[in-house]
Write a structure and sequence with these properties.
Alpha-Beta Plaits, elongated, alpha+beta, four-stranded antiparallel sheet, 24% helix
């Protein structure tokens, strides 16, 4: 059993959020946090005075066994997007603690 926990962060154009969220829910992702963010990287918004684009940031905490599966779902989803499809980041997480009852969550609980 893989006991590691990862945080998966996905940044995509805001107009693609609903479809990406549907793909993740259909795959059984139990929870995610979504923020509206603005920024620029490889593709800036040259029609805006500050160059910023509207994006969505999705964060998912996953046990190591599900991490690659979720990343693959996002990669497959992004193949159908235009060139400014965004980024996907995977980071190790030391601990996840439930604020409801203070217990430490295990990888198999995520």
């Amino acid at each position: 059993m893989n006991t590691s926990i990862h945080r998966i962060t996905v940044i995509i154009p805001a107009e693609n959020l609903d479809e990406c969220e549907r793909c993740l829910r259909a795959a059984g992702v139990p929870g995610m946090t979504i923020d509206n963010v603005r920024g620029f990287g490889e593709h800036a918004n040259y029609f805006s005075s500050d160059l910023l684009c509207s994006n969505a940031r999705i964060e998912i905490f996953a046990g190591g066994g599900r991490c690659e599966e979720i990343c693959e779902i996002v990669r497959e989803f992004a193949l159908g997007l235009p060139a400014r499809a965004g980024i996907l980041v995977v980071e190790p997480v030391d601990r996840v603690i439930s604020l409801e009852d203070g217990r430490e969550l295990r990888a198999d609980m995520l």
